[in-house]
Amino acid sequence: SLSKHLNKIAFEFTSSTFLPDVLPRPIQETFTIGFLGLGKMGTTIVNRLLNSGLKVMVWNRTPSKCKYFMELGAEKGSTPSEVVQTSDITISCVSDARALKDLISGTNGVLESISPGKSFVDMSTVDVLTVTELHESITSRGGKFLESPIIGSLDSSMEDVVVVASGDKELFDDCCSTVFNSISKKAFYLGGIGSATCMKLVVNMLQGTLLAGLAETLALGEKLGLDQSQVLNILTLLPISSQLNSLKGDAMITNQLSTRQLSLEHMQRDIRLAISLGELVQQPLYITTATNELFKKAKARGYGDHDTAAIYRATD
Ligand code: NA7
C-alpha cells in the first residue's frame, strides 16, 4: 500500500509555490504558534519566530531547554496536549519517528487535543509511512496537517533554507504568511502527503554522497602528500565549487566537527530512508549504498552527534 501511495505522490507532484506569490492573511493579535522540540533545529526556528514578533508557546521533553525562550518572551506549555490546545498552529521538530510517535500518541500527547480547527505541522524528518499515519491520525480527528521537513542549514542565512511542504494547502498558505516567512525565503507546496519527505530525502541523499566524495578526495590527497587546503582552494576556482565543498572540506581538514548543524547520525538516517525508498520503487542506488556504509562506519566510531564532516574520519 505504501508503493501505491508513492505512485499517487508521483501523480500529485506537480505544483510548487514561491513565498512571494502568497498573499499574507491578516493575523489576529492572539495568534499563537506552538512549538514542540527544542533541539538544534527547533531552537533556531523558534528564535526566528520570536524575532518576527510572533507569539510562541514552547514545549520540550527536557523542560530546562524552555527557559531561554521564556526569557525571550515565549510561553511554556506543560504538555504537548496543552500546547495544541492553546495554539492556532502547532509545529513539531523532533529527532526521529520514535520521538514523533511518543509526542503524538503518548500520555498528554498531541492527539488528545486535536479537534476540528486545530492545525498541525511536522518539521521532523521521518519515513513516508510514519508521516502518512500521522496525517491520518490528525485529519481523522478533524485537524489540518502539513508535512514540512526543512532542507538546508538553519545555522546561516535565510537564503540557505528551503521549505518544502505537502498536505493541507490552506494550512500551507497560512504557514507562508507566518511561520515559513520567518525562516526562509523559499517555500514549495508539493501536493500529496509523502512528497515533501521524498523531496528532502533525495536532496539530502545527494548532499551525503557529495560529502563522501569530498572526504575520499581529501583522504587520497593527503596520502599523496598534497596540501589539502590547496586542494580545496583549487576546487573553489572550478565549476564544481560549492559552499558545501568549502565549509565541510575545511571542517574535515581542521577537524572542527562540533555540531551546530545537521548531525552525522541524522544524515545517515536520511540516506538509509532514501535507500528504502529506492528499494520500494526499484531504483538501484549504488553510490548512495556505498556512502551509507561510510556514514555507518563514522557513526560506529562515535561521531553520530558530530557534524556531517566527520565522515572524513571513516575514510581509512
Ligand atoms: P536534535 O538537536 O537532536 O534534537 C532532537 C529533539 O527531539 C530534542 O528536542 C529532543 O528532546 C527531542 N526528542 C528526542 N526524543 C524524544 C522523545 N522520545 N519524545 C519527545 N521529544 C524527543 O535534532 P535536530 O533539532 O537537529 O533535528 C530535528 C529533526 O529535524 C530531525 O529529524 C532532523 O533530521 C531534522 P530533548 O531535548 O532531548 O529532551
Question: How is the topology of this model organized?
Answer:
Elements (H helix, E strand, L loop, with lengths): L1 H11 L19 E5 L3 H12 L3 E5 L7 H5 L3 E2 L3 H7 L2 E4 L4 H9 L13 E4 L5 H13 L3 E4 L2 E3 L8 E7 L1 H15 L2 E4 L5 H29 L4 H9 L6 H12 L9 H17 L5 H18 L13
Parallel strand pairs: 1-2, 1-4, 2-3, 4-5, 5-6, 8-9
Antiparallel strand pairs: 6-8, 7-8
Helix pairs in contact: 2-7, 8-10, 8-11, 8-12, 9-10, 11-12
The structure holds ligand NA7.
Protein name: Cytokine-like nuclear factor N-PAC
Keywords: Chromosome
Family: Belongs to the HIBADH-related family. NP60 subfamily.
Tell me the major beta sheet: 9 strands, mixed
Count all strands and give the number: 9
Helix content: 40-55%
Unique ligands: ligand NA7
Describe this structure in words.
The protein is α/β, with parallel strands linked by helices and 316 residues long. It is 50% helix and 12% strand. The chain has twelve helices and nine strands. Strands 1, 2, 3, 4, 5, 6, 7, 8 and 9 form a nine-stranded mixed beta sheet that branches. α5 (97-105) links the parallel β4 and β5 (119-122). The longest helix is centred in the middle third of the chain and has 29 residues, at 195-223. The radius of gyration is 20 Å and the shape is globular. The site of ligand NA7 has 20 residues, from α2 and α5. One of its GO terms (biological process) is transcription elongation-coupled chromatin remodeling. GO terms for molecular function: DNA binding; NAD binding; NADP binding; nucleosome binding. Keywords: Chromosome. One of its GO terms (cellular component) is chromatin. It is found in: Chromosome.
